[in-house]
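lol ok so funny story. i was supposed to be doing the assay writeup but got distracted and ended up predicting the structure for this chain instead. priorities right. anyway since i did it might as well share w the group, maybe its usefull for someone
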Amino acid sequence: MYFPPVGSETWETVTPESLGWNVTKLSDAIIYAGTKNTYGLIILYKGRIVTEKYWNSWDKNTVYFIASAGKSVTAFLAGIAQQEGKLNINNKTSTYLGNGWTSAPLAKEN
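and the output, tada:
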């Protein structure tokens, strides 16, 4: 897995061709995303940028509050963690974060 150096503007890339991806289908998917009120799309493979596309006056420096996107990323990562046996989504969150992980009353936490 690759992570860009902290404080660096340089991020390694990889081409879809080198991954054996169908470039036509990838292009179709990107075009489709652009028709759905998308503002930015980045596709990564093992941490490297495969493609990056922006619409609606956005660019890589646009700052915007995207709180709901965090829910999708969290759900995705939780699914991977379950698949790898690192957690069980049927367990209480406190199993992993400990009691008092939230300011909610215990009844809601449970």
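The chain has a mean pLDDT of 91. Strands lie at 40-45, 48-54.
back to the writeup now i swear
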